[in-house]
Write a structure and sequence with these properties.
By secondary structure, this protein is of the alpha/beta class. The protein has one domain (about 10-140): NAD(P)-binding Rossmann-like Domain (Rossmann fold, 3-Layer(aba) Sandwich). Helices cover about 40% and strands about 15% of the residues. It contains four helices and five strands. It has helices spanning about 20-30, 40-45, 65-75, 100-130; strands at about 10-15, 35-40, 55, 80-85, 135. A five-stranded parallel β-sheet has the order 3-2-1-4-5, with helices on both faces. Strand 1, helix 1 and strand 2 (about 35-40) form a beta-alpha-beta unit. Helix 3 (about 65-75) packs parallel to helix 4 (about 100-130). The protein starts with 9 loop residues before the first strand and ends in a 9-residue tail after the last strand.
Length: about 140
């Protein structure tokens, strides 16, 4: 039984091609939403075959890519009601003093900057339509040190 009503709602789910993201996509569709999956993995995106689902290759670490993904989504659906910032990586496990700088930057770019870019792009459209919901997914890994 599905008690969530998302009829006529349009959502973006970042990192939505697999794992938790794909589960969120499926639940939103079951609840009546139209969903845009943003993911950078074209091969995995091409394996997804769902109704009421648009698949776009978007790299959340690039504001240009996010902006283009938003434009494409708005062109297709006309609005964005829900943004789920799900894209993320845990990165490798190292002692702080041994953590490679390039790996650290990759985690920051995806997990922090990516969320910022997506919100920065989408929020003005939500404000204009006087409606919007943002869900930011995080990880317990942030507590480890």
């Amino acid at each position: 039984m599905n008690s969530i009503d998302l009829k006529d709602r349009c959502a973006i789910v970042t990192g939505g091609a697999q794992g938790f993201g794909l589960a969120i996509v499926k639940r939103f569709i079951e609840s009546g939403a139209k969903v845009i999956i943003w993911d950078k993995d074209e091969e995995i995106l091409n394996q997804i075959d769902l109704e009421n689902c648009i698949k776009l290759i978007v790299d959340v670490t690039s504001f240009d890519s996010v902006s283009q993904g938003l434009k494409s989504g708005l062109d297709k659906l006309g609005k964005i009601d829900i943004l789920v910032n799900n894209a993320g990586i845990a990165g490798p496990s190292f002692k702080t003093w041994n953590y490679p700088n390039d790996e650290w930057q990759k985690v920051i770019d995806i997990d922090l900057t990516g969320v910022f870019y997506c919100c920065k792009a989408v929020v003005p459209h939500m404000r204009k339509q006087n409606y919007g919901r943002i869900i930011n997914i995080s990880s317990i890994a942030g507590k480890e040190g």
